Amino acid sequence: MKKSLLALAVLGAFAGAANAQTNVTVYGVIDAGISRETGGANGSVWNLASGVQSGNRLGFKGTEDLGGGLKANFQLENGFNVDTGTQRQGALFGRQAFVGLSGNFGAVNLGRQYDPLFIALDSIDPFGTGLTGASTNLMAAGSKIWDAAGVVGNGEVPRVNNAITYSSPNVSGFTANALYGLGETAGNNSANRTYALSGTYANGPVAAVLAYSSTNAPATIAADKFKVLLVGGTYDLGVAKAHLAYETEKSDSGADFRDWLLGVSAPVAGGTVMASFIKQTDKAAGGNAGAKQYALGYTYPLSKRTNVYTSYGHITNDAGANNVVSDASSGGANSAPNFGQSSSGFAVGVRHTF
């Protein structure tokens, strides 16, 4: 009898421990493909690319019920390269790392998080900012990168360090997100500071987004500010979904780009066909750094968690531009093209989520 009671107590302890952890989820993405990139200044290259459609990740997220409708929530997400096993984003949890509280008021989180601008663009792009047709090849998706000379470069950072975010509850299809990223520069609180806002409406076949992001240059270079405004949406026609976006990218130092995205996605033969066209116009005085991108892709589900994909993208650069076709991967050995030269990319691969 005593042994039975002891066994029940031990089983109860394990059951309690398991129950206490049911609110913690382990998840991830493993994505690898073979890609060919042409047009680079160093010549064409074949790559075994890591994360072509979606960046590879291993994550942990969970909640704790604090009572009265209040919950504690956290998320830790690591990025890695499946081709080499190395770490991405330069940190253990470089993709996301935050903790916060949520309830009927919405959610407030603190840590490294996505810029609402990136989330908005990702929801409009028929390629989901992945594959070789990613809109981020031309369009801004977050904080801009300055080079050592203080010149606004081509790269953007979709995640923001030291960020405080607020996400509203859904009210009749409307949601809002706000982010404030502290620059953490002693004596200059505005340096490297980011703030961003977005609003989304989704109801039936219609979805619309409006997003704005502003980032100050680091204190190590001349004062500058990069500002992005995005408006767009999708409309599901049943047989196909239309995608449309317009974006302005400006800096105090004179950069001024206008981007149009027109896309379509449609179910075909059990999978999804995606196509898009992006036109970027350089509106700066004497500007000649515009470009056009054409992209076509297809994804096919093998199960609820595994799919195969293929995609092709081509960029035609104006005389002052050297944009390169890329995707969600860590990037291969391809280099940017010479100014005014075209860039193309093709990929085929497989993605598994868990």
TrEMBL record:
Organism: Noviherbaspirillum autotrophicum
UniProt xrefs under Pfam families: Porin_4
Membrane topology: Multi-pass membrane protein
Quaternary structure note: Homotrimer.
Signal sequence, start to end: 1-20
InterPro entries linked: Gram-neg_bact_OMP (IPR050298), Gram_neg_porin_domain (IPR033900), Porin_dom_sf (IPR023614), Porin_Gram-ve (IPR001702), Porin_Neis (IPR002299)
UniProt KW keywords: Cell outer membrane, Ion transport, Membrane, Porin, Signal, Transmembrane, Transmembrane beta strand, Transport
Cellular location(s): Cell outer membrane
Residues annotated as domain Porin: 7-319
Database matches in PANTHER family: MAJOR OUTER MEMBRANE PROTEIN P.IA, PROTEIN YDDL-RELATED
Gene3D superfamilies, per database record: Porin
GO biological process terms on file: monoatomic ion transmembrane transport
SUPFAM superfamilies: Porins
GO cellular component: cell outer membrane; pore complex
Native organism taxonomy: Bacteria, Pseudomonadati, Pseudomonadota, Betaproteobacteria, Burkholderiales
GO molecular function, one term: porin activity
Protein name per the record: Porin
